Amino acid sequence: RLSRQPESGRPELAVSFEFFPPKTDVMEERFWASLSRLAPLGPRFVSVTYGAGGSTRERTLRMVSRITNETGVPAAAHLTCVGATRDEVDDVVRGYAEAGVKRIVALRGDPPEGVGHAFTPHPDGYNSAADLVAGIRKLGDFDISVAAYPEKHPQSVDWDADIDNLKRKFDAGADRAITQMFFENGDYWRFVERARKAGISAPIVPGIQPIHSFRQIAGFAGRCGASIPQWLADRFDGLDDDPETHALVAAAVAAEQVTELLDSGITEFHFYTLNRSNLVLALARLLGIRP
Ligand code: FAD
Q1: Residue 207 has pLDDT above 80, yes or no
Q2: Enzyme group, top EC level (predicted)?
């Protein structure tokens, strides 16, 4: 078991941390406090999401510029193409480049009604993430990440369509995929096997969602098509009013997930931080990553 080997004998690991752009001064304080605790771990990058329908366009740009220019940590800016013309999206890409941001997480985004509803591209817009990746490639030399779905994207008609779509994103020039949250490692492994069979050799980095609040994460999961296994729901059952036990169970669940992935050969992890650092710091330590 790699996770129990002395740290000196373990493979070199890479981590990245995802944040969202804060809305208020108090949230912004938490953002910077968490970032300053996680930055010393030497992440490959920290990424900042792009609010639904581009609603955080200015805030995302402001946060990635400040990260790039004030902390020295490589920043990745998320970008979606929903509800915008190609020219508008291209302007955002140019803004990222001017701010010194060299990494983009390129996404299609969801219609305002939510992920379950059909996506209609803007008549003058990019019509999918693959199309967006091709557009970004024309604008500059960016490191591009795209999304992957271990349980299949809710709009993919079948597995072949889902994997074909991922392949199109790599063919258009993506460098890596980051997965949607998942709680059964078997789903991740089956997905990677399907992708490799289809000739995709690029990294498919597992996206790990620590469960700061089971109620909140179950809600997110439901909205993005990730399932909550019954065993997981059982573990958190009745803990809504017991934050201490909830936090201990959350740490144990996430520790189990990442150490199992580490022991099966994973060397790169993406953490959905929700702008919090505690659980992620503990998980990094278990992986042998320290300041
Ligand atoms: P795509 O890869 O374009 O595909 C989505 C679906 O459309 C797939 O089912 C595919 O099979 C189908 N499809 C694609 N092209 C075609 C075609 N030509 N014809 C028919 N079907 C097609 N959302 C945000 O709003 N902001 C964020 O910052 C954000 N960050 C994310 C980060 C990660 C790591 C992940 C996993 C998701 C993120 N999302 C974000 C959510 C994402 O926008 C949604 O999951 C969205 O529904 C799909 O985006 P995509 O880039 O995967 O789309």
Answers
A1: yes
A2: oxidoreductase
